[in-house]
Please model this.
Amino acid sequence: MKVGDAHCHVNPVKGLGPRELAKRFKKANGWFIGLVNLLSWSYDVTAIKPEDYRKVYDITLKSAELIREEGIKVAIILGPHPAEFTTLVEKGVKPEEAYNIMVRAYEIAALYISEGKASGLGEVGRPHWPVSHGVLNWCNRILDRVLELASDLDCIVHLHLEETREETIEDIHSRVKKYRARKVILHHIKSRYVRKAFEKGLYASVPARSRDLIEALKHGSSFVIESDYLDDPKRPGAVVAPWSIYRTFKRLIDGGYLSEAEAERILVDNIKTLYDLE
Model:
């Protein structure tokens, strides 16, 4: 049973780093990682203008290179997290200026994709913590622009959103339809919405925890899984260690929650479809 992780982070500055993560993951039958850059400050990067995000992106590209050297396939996802926008505003940057910084940073990420250096954009979207209505509107404007870029590039987008609700799915579906983005993944989706996301043409990424997977499997196997591993020494287990995924799926197979064929569909086939892999 091979293991594909659709959404993972690594921190070569403060954490285990890419090579050690890859070695541990490969020992646990890992074959693929969707590598998403962390927040700028996670790498001790001060990002106050769009060009500063090149440092974040280049750190991620170098990490991917080291992971690949250990025999793991990697797709690179680049772009500022919604927390980057809210933090700029909290520091006194005018929302319109912060919006322009975020959009330009995503346009720079789009250049990496057009040059074949990366595979997708994200994680973009809305905060999962309380913010003002005004901040939420600006975040939605950033999201819309990124969906437009993704449509032009025909690339994947990872969305960071509030806790999943029916209206969340409907809202994202309408935005995706408007901008004709082809592959939009709902990162850290609530398991009970897997089928609804699939029916709306969206991709669902479920945290690789037993309770989340058991609930998701009630709604079929049309989803991928993610560790959302943060590689943060202050939070060593957050969210899921990629090398624990194999054990989790083995327990679920042994417990009769899914078959080996269903596990292969989730951990291999769906990943290949999502990321256009051979």
Summary: The CA atoms of residues 40 and 56 lie 6 Å apart.
